[in-house]
């Protein structure tokens, strides 16, 4: 496998992890109002993922993979809603620890990384086609 | 046949180097969000070494017995170095700056084009010299 196809493979692995990250962000955002059913129950907990490098033996390149999807252990928010079935004695309901602003920023970052990887693919492709042009 | 001619050899070395560098840069960009990842880059191509033809230090295992296995993958003649001194890094220890990597990518692209154009120019020259069109 030549270097230019290798760099395309690496960039594709980068795009894959970023789209998985985007999926997780959308999950967090979609569940930002998933409250508990009972006063003892817990609402949706935000998920975060980390990436790692992994050697792909078939091509001899190190690709990016999703390391782990973990739960964000930060504190839940509290909303005052006495009529909610999950409200405690003081009328507060635990709400997910999802901050839309943070999710949006994460989303922008994922998008930017994705685009950068796409640029790498384009660049590799143009180098490859330049090489082929030499035959003419 | 072309490999014996100095200019072709130089252009080829340059293109090889850029292709290899492209791979390293792709790795950096793919790892733009990996914690504690430091960007890498290839060591600059040494023109003198290319001219002297000493860029490829082929150090392989000696096979003194028929049962010895020679590794199929030959080590790359170019060396990737990790950038220890980086411009800035995020709180998770990642020091990849996308803009910087993109600039390097563009730089590699134009250098590659230059080397390829050089290659073609000389090819044409040989054609002209040999009388064919």
From TrEMBL, chain A:
GO terms for biological process: bacterial-type flagellum-dependent swarming motility. The keyword Kinase does not apply. InterPro entries: Flagellar_basal_body_rod_CS, Flg_bb/hook_C_dom, FlgC. It comes from the Bacteria. It holds the Pfam family Flg_bbr_C. Residues 90-134 form the Flagellar basal-body/hook protein C-terminal domain. Keywords: Bacterial flagellum, Cell projection, Cilium, Flagellum. This is Flagellar basal-body rod protein FlgC. The lineage of its organism: Bacteria, Pseudomonadati, Pseudomonadota, Alphaproteobacteria, Rhodospirillales.
TrEMBL record, chain B:
The keyword ATP-binding does not apply. Keywords: Bacterial flagellum, Cell projection, Cilium, Flagellum. The keyword Oxidoreductase does not apply. Coiled coil: none annotated. One of its GO terms (cellular component) is bacterial-type flagellum basal body, rod. One of its GO terms (biological process) is bacterial-type flagellum-dependent cell motility. It is found in: Bacterial flagellum basal body. Belongs to the flagella basal body rod proteins family. It comes from the Bacteria. This is Flagellar basal body rod protein FlgB. Structural component of flagellum, the bacterial motility apparatus. Part of the rod structure of flagellar basal body. It comes from Paramagnetospirillum magnetotacticum MS-1. Its main location: other. It holds the Pfam family Flg_bb_rod. Residues 19-37 form the Flagellar basal body rod protein N-terminal domain. InterPro entries: Flag_bb_rod_N, FlgB. The basal body constitutes a major portion of the flagellar organelle and consists of a number of rings mounted on a central rod.
């Amino acid at each position: 496998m030549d270097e230019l196809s290798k760099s395309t493979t690496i960039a594709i692995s980068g795009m894959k992890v970023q789209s998985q990250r985007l999926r997780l962000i959308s999950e967090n955002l979609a569940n930002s109002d998933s409250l508990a059913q009972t006063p003892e129950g817990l609402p949706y907990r935000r998920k975060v993922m980390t990436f790692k490098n992994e050697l792909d033996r078939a091509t001899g390149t190190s690709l990016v993979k999703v390391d782990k999807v973990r739960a964000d252990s930060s504190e839940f928010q509290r909303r005052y809603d006495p009529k909610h079935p999950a409200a405690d004695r003081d009328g507060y309901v635990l709400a997910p620890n999802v901050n839309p602003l943070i999710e949006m920023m994460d989303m922008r970052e994922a998008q930017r990384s994705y685009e950068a990887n796409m640029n790498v693919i384009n660049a590799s492709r143009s180098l490859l086609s330049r090489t082929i042009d030499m035959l003419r | 046949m072309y490999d014996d001619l100095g200019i072709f050899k130089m252009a080829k070395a340059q293109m090889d180097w850029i292709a290899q560098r492209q791979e390293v840069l792709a790795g950096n960009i793919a790892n733009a969000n990996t914690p504690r990842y430091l960007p890498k880059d290839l060591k600059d191509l040494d023109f003198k070494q290319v001219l002297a033809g000493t860029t490829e230090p082929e150090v392989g295992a000696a096979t003194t017995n028929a049962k010895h296995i020679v590794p199929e993958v030959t080590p790359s003649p170019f060396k990737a170095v990790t950038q220890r001194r980086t411009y800035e890094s995020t709180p998770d220890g990642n020091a990849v700056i996308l803009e910087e990597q993109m600039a390097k990518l563009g730089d590699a692209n134009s250098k590659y084009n230059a080397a390829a154009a050089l290659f073609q120019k000389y090819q044409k020259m040989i054609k002209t010299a040999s009388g064919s069109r």
